[in-house]
User: What shape does this take?
Amino acid sequence: MLADGQELAIVDVREELIFSQGHLLFARSIPLSRIELNFGRLVPRRGTRIVLCDDADGLAERAADVLAGCGYRNLFALEGGVAAWANAGLELFSGVNVPSKAFGELVEHASATPSISPDELECLMREGKDLVVLDSRPFDEYRRVSIPTAINVPGAELVLRVHDMAPSPDTLVVVNCAGRTRSIIGAQSLINAGVPNKVVALRNGTVGWSLACRRCDSCQTRRAPQQPSSAAIAWAKTAADAVARQLDIR
Assistant: This one.
């Protein structure tokens, strides 16, 4: 199934803590306890092939019964559960969001994406360095905890809005997230787009900032203007066209 190129959803129905201790690489955690709430949003097409994973304890079969009642008709249970996968010599992965995190690490390694440590950033802030911190997470995450002075610009909007956030090419642009991945992808996206500014990712994001005993903010509302300027839109279009040509995207 994994190699045939057809649509496939691998769903681990164990609780997320157990899932995080060892799971198939492309499995998505949708615990049985919340399956009716979350499944339709994550797997909207009822004809999708679905492989359900558990610890061979009956959770997959129970999940299949629930999903069949919701109209899903292409359901399979992983025989022997996750342990059987490992016993067959196949790899299990710990943590959550593993594929996207691996992609971020690959991008950083391949592109040598520059980064800055919390100590270095705080030093520049104290010195009054011309810089802007762009928080690339969704607004609700930003509201919970953020770096002082950070402005919320979700990752997909960075190229569109960076011109307004840092109109001077001398401004240092720092991209942060909660950890690493979105900081790396956001910073490298700006670099690939040809931003004239120096761009760096904040190493380990708000978590790294907190672990370095730096003060975090909460309940902040700093956001990019709702309507980008005409200059920002024009620059973003030019940058997008250039990247598309470079990568032969049509």
About this structure: The beta strands are 8-12, 28-29, 49-53, 75-77, 115-116, 131-135, 151-152, 172-176, 199-202. The chain has two domains: 8-96, 99-238. Residues 58 and 81 are 9 Å apart (CA to CA).
